Amino acid sequence: MAISRPLLFVLIGALALLAGVMGMRAMGGGQEAEPKASAPTSTSTAGAPSGQSSASTPASRPARPRQSAAGKRAAEKAKGSDPEAPVLRALAQRKVVVLFFGQYRGADDRATRRAVRTVGRKRGVAVFAASINDVADYPRVASGLGIQQSPSTAVIDRQGRARVVEGFLDEGSLSQLVADARS
Fold first, then answer.
1. Which residues on neighbouring strands pair with residue 50, listed in sequence order?
2. Thinking of the domain 77-182, which architecture would CATH place it in?
3. Model pTM?
4. By three-state DSSP, how is residue 115 classified?
5. pLDDT tens digits, residue range 3-30?
6. I need a surface site. Which of 57, 66, 110, 171 has the fewest CB within 10 A?
7. How does DSSP classify residue 105?
C-alpha cells in the first residue's frame, strides 16, 4: 500500500514536532536541576568593601509574590478606597463626566484612551478611566448604562443624563459629545 506524498509530509512533520517537544522537555528538566546543585551555599564578601556584606545585593533579596487583579481590588476595598467616590464627587460639582472602560492591550482601547485624556484637559470636564473588568466597582454610576463591550465611553452631562458609546471613539467625536453635554 502506497502513502501519498502530502500525507507522508504531514506524518514526518508530526514526528519532527513530537521529537522537538520531547527534546525541549528533556532539556528543560535538566536545566532546572543544575542551578540548584551548582549554586554556592555561602556568600563571599571578597568584592565588598570592609564593613559591608554582599547580603544587600539584589540576588539575595527574596522575591515579592505578585498579587492578582482580584486580590488588588479586594485590598483596595479593605482599605476603604471607593473608586466610585471621585466620580460621584464630580457629578455633585455639576461637571461633565467622561467615564472610560477599556482594556490595556487593545488597539481601539488605547486610541480611545488617548482621546479621553485629551478631552480631560478641558475646563469643567472630569475624566475617569478604569478596566472593563471593574465596571462592577461603579454600581451607582454604571448600573443603568449597560456597558458590556470594551472600549466603552460614557459621557454624563450636568443633569445626570448619560450617553454611552461602545467601540472606538476618536478625539473629534468625543469632543463633540462633551460639547453637547455642556449645553
1. none
2. 3-Layer(aba) Sandwich (3.40)
3. 0.55
4. helix
5. 888 888 888 988 888 888 888 877 765 4
6. 66
7. S
